[in-house]
Each structure stands twice: as structure tokens, then as C-alpha cells.
Amino acid sequence: MSRLNLTNLETVCCIARVGTFSAAAERLNASQPTVTGRVRELEQSLGIQFFRKRGRNMELTEEGRQFIERVEPLVIQLEEAVTTHADVTSARGTLRLGIGIVTMTWFGRVLAQLRRDMPLVQYDIETDLSMNMLHKLESGKLDLAVVAGRIEHPMFATRSLAAEELRWLMGASAMEEGFDEACDLAAKLDSRPLWFVSRPSEFFPRSLDTLKKCGASPLHVNTCSNMISMLRMIEETGGIGLVAMALAKPLLDAGRVIDLSPQLPPECYDLTLVYRTDERQSIIQRVVERIVEHDKLHRSIRVA
Q1: Which residues have a Cβ under 8 Å from the Cβ of 84 and sit 6 or more positions away?
Q2: Is 230 left (phi over 0), alpha (psi -120 to 50) or beta?
Q3: Pfam families from the entry (predicted)?
């Protein structure tokens, strides 16, 4: 048997982790033919087949799974040893990040710092519902995500971030339609279009439960998967909805939406930074460090 190439071992472990040759190629900053060639070379050296195709993903064969279960811990230990002494300024590759709409209001500042830290790294940023981003993280289609809520999963490492404030808002156009501001809260809620973030999100049941506790019988329930678009719908339809203050403040300051506090008190939701527990790459760790640093500053400003 010829000597094993460490890069080939890293490649098959990466494919097993992220699920496809193309995703592994992005992660390893290599072309897909190069990744395919590494796998074939290792298969020829060992005399085994690592993967078989199932749908769009590559599935490990039984002998491939047994081999990677034995080898991957050793590869991870080596990566950790290298990471300790790595100079991330020369790092290359594409990081796939899942960043929610609200997080995008401050993530640009983190990205600016990361560009100074790692000028050769590229970023592929997706915005989606938290549930969808977690599924993509689990399947290896994302490297890291910032999601709503507290997350506990054996596959994920997590860092708690500062909570975001949400407020119940009503589009100011409701006043132009002869809306009776003196009516009680339940009547207000029953008379206006209600806007919620789409049902798969944690915000939908939470928002609906709040309104029912206020005595409302929601009849005009509308949903939107994008909170920025939802805010626009609230403004233009004179509707009511629960929106992050980070997004709503410009419209509040301009008088285009009305804050329904204290009739409907503000709420908060937690943010969590999530990445896979088997992730040891120095560039991922640097992203985690920068997000946590920004979060600590964000918290201190709020306290002040």
C-alpha cells in the first residue's frame, strides 16, 4: 500500500461531514474535479469505495463509514494542533453563513473586521428562517448560523448572544381610514390586518398566543417569511404586527408606524450563534470570536 496523503484523508472526512463533493470543494477551496481525484486516489490506495450516490448527496458505504469513524478523530486532532499555530491572514476558502434579517442590521460591522483579519476568505451569506438554517447547518450546507431562540443539540456548539427587542406596531395609515384610537385593545386587534412571521418560525405561535391573551379573536391573520417585508406590509395596510426594533426604528421615528406599547408590552427574543461541534477550522473559530466580541460590545452599550 502506498503512503497515505493527509489532504486526501481530510477531503473524504469533509465530504462525509458536508454531504456533497461540491460543498466539500467550496469548504476546501478546491475544484470539484480535484476533490473527486483525491477520493479516487485514496480509494485506490486502500482498495475500498467510500461513497455511493443517493439523490443529490453522497452516502458513505459501510466500509467507508467504518474507516472515517476511526480516522476522523485523528484528522481533527491534527487540525486542532495546526489551528493553534495558524496564521488566519493567509486563509482561503468560502464560508457559508446563515444570518437572519435582524442580525444583518449589525453583521456588516463584524464582516468588515473579518475582512481585515482574513482578506482572502470569501463569504456566501444566506438569510432564512431559523428552522431552515438549522436544517442546512445539520446537513453541512452551512458552516455557521445566527438563529432565534435557545438551541440544544448534540451536533451543535452554541454561544448565547444579546437578546433583541420586539415591539407591537400598527401602520399609521390606519388613522387615515378613520380608525377609532379610543376603542379597547381587543377591538383594535380584531379590526386590523394582523401580520405574523411565517408559521414555521417560533414567532408565529408566540404572537398568536399574546393576542389571544388580550381577548382578541384574530380573523385577519397574514404571514410573511421576511420581517422587513412584513414591516412594509404593516405600514401600507395599517396592520398590526410584532417587529424587531432594530428594523422598525426608522419607521417609528418617521411616524409611519405607531408603537402600541404599553397596551401590548415589548417582548424580547434570544439569539444564538450555532456551528457544528466537529468544526475545528481556524477560520470558523475566528468568525465565532469576532461575533462574540461584537456581542459583548453590543451588550455593554445597551446597559450603558
Answers
A1: none
A2: alpha
A3: HTH_1, LysR_substrate
Structural domain of 39: 6-85
Q: Are residues 106 and 145 in the same domain?
A: yes
Q: Which residues contact 176 (CB under 8 A, 6 or more apart)?
A: 238
pLDDT average, residue stretch 211-222: 80
3-state helix, strand, coil in the chain (%, to 5): 50, 20, 30
Per-residue confidence (pLDDT) for residue 87, from 0 to 100: 65
pLDDT, tens digit (0-9, with 9 covering 90-100), for 111-130: 999 999 999 888 999 998 88
Q: How far apart are CA 171 and CA 183, in angstroms?
A: 16
1 lies in some domain: no
27: left (phi over 0), alpha (psi -120 to 50) or beta: alpha
Looking at the predicted structure, is the pLDDT value of residue 85 above 60?
Answer: no
| 14 and 97 both lie in a single domain | no
CA pair distance 226, 212, nearest whole angstrom: 23
Residues 180 and 209 in one domain: yes
Q: Which amino acid is at 251?
A: L
pTM of the predicted structure, to 2 decimals: 0.72
Say whether both 152 and 172 belong to one domain. Answer: no
Which residues, in sequence order, are CB contacts of 67 under 8 Å at separation 6+? 46, 48, 50
